[in-house]
Amino acid sequence: MLLSTLLPLVLGLGAPDAQAANNGPMMWGVGPTFSTIAFPGGHPLKWPKLSEADAALMPAGELDDNRKIQTLDEVRGDMAVGARGVFYFNKDWRGGLRTHLFSAGANYNALDFTLEADKMLFNQSRLGAYGGLGLGFGKMKFGAEDSDAELKLSTYLLRGQLGGIYRLKKAAIEVGLFVQPTFPGLQEYTATNGTVSEIEGLFGSKDSGGGGTFWHGGLEATVYFGDFQPPKKKSNKKGGKK
To answer: Whole-angstrom Cα distance, residue 238 to residue 7?
Structure first.
């Protein structure tokens, strides 16, 4: 649903220029991307809470007084590795597809995919700056260093990004900032005693539990390989005999 909503928008941004160029991208590239969470200092901002019935089955010390999980490790100093591809519709707009394949954080992993649209705020022959939005989905898993407790959840996310790019003919380097409001779907918590509890997502009730705040932001760098030479403008002058 999220991707089908954004796709027509992205494809429509540069349609006239794209058709003029025989439906081919003005420029394109694909390559590895690396990112780290800078905010919050400990991810997530807030753990979800269990229902009253599930909370009654938990060992002592598993939850706080509000039935929120307190046995899992917050994420600090992670490094996410993935891939990103971009294609320029024209000099002002580009589309992108991103995936984060895994996160090298202690007792934490995340997988997500986003479809994105960027507006070029500044765009010269080699240097460019952009701002954009994205929609996507994914999964997260949190664990603990001293126990087998873990939390798994599906996620739906928005993404805002701002950065700069330096282009060569066949490669480019991009560095930017991102913020990623992330909304939980169905969550599954495995307690230290092996008890498994299902937790509702974003709209959990007071009795059923749910919630959790997984918004985060940080820094990202991408190395692209592709074709970053803008097409040459065709001359309208017609030759003739003297």
So the answer is: 40
